[in-house]
Amino acid sequence: MNEGQNSAELQDLYRELILDHARKPRNFGRLNEVTHTAEGINPLCGDKLRLYLHVDSEHMITDVGFEGSGCAISMASASLLTETVNNLSMADASSLFNLITSRLTRQDDDIPATETVDLSKLQALDGVSQHPTRIKCATLAWHTLHAALTQATSIATTE
Ligand code: ZN
User: Fold this and answer.
1) What is the extent of the structural domain holding 121?
2) Per-residue pLDDT tens for 119-151?
3) Is the pTM for the entire model greater than 0.70?
4) Most-buried pick from 6, 63, 87, 148 (CB within 10 A)?
5) Ligand 1: distance of its center to the CA of 45 in Å?
6) 2 alpha carbon – ligand 1 mean position (Å)
7) What is the tens place of the pLDDT at every residue in 8-34?
8) What is the CATH number of the domain that holds 123?
């Protein structure tokens, strides 16, 4: 198998992963106990979501949920986010926000090594960096996470 075939197959796998998460979003719904929440809006595409976190006294994220509607990429990104940040510390989730957003906007091509988080699934979102109009769809959930963690504002916007 040559490199070209390999990456084409990988692209197919990523497309399937995104469609799967968009059709069956994981952790969809409001949590019973919410300590942090924020709303995110991407006016460019009409994506809208609300993220719910439960953070314990040790600053660990112990539960994550979201509600919303939007395009496949925004929903898949939110679904992947909920799977990724659950059981992370708030500090690790914040670093992940910086990592993912700079990666998707191509400010940073390298993924720093991380022992705490498996980023393999999130690589599925890398394809959007080729499509500038979709980048905000993919980063919306992460901006919303950041807003929820910092409580800076209750509404995060990609604009
Ligand atoms: Zn969108």
Assistant:
1) 3-157
2) 778 888 887 877 888 899 999 999 999 999 997
3) yes
4) 148
5) 5
6) 33
7) 787 888 889 999 999 999 999 999 999
8) 3.90.1010.10
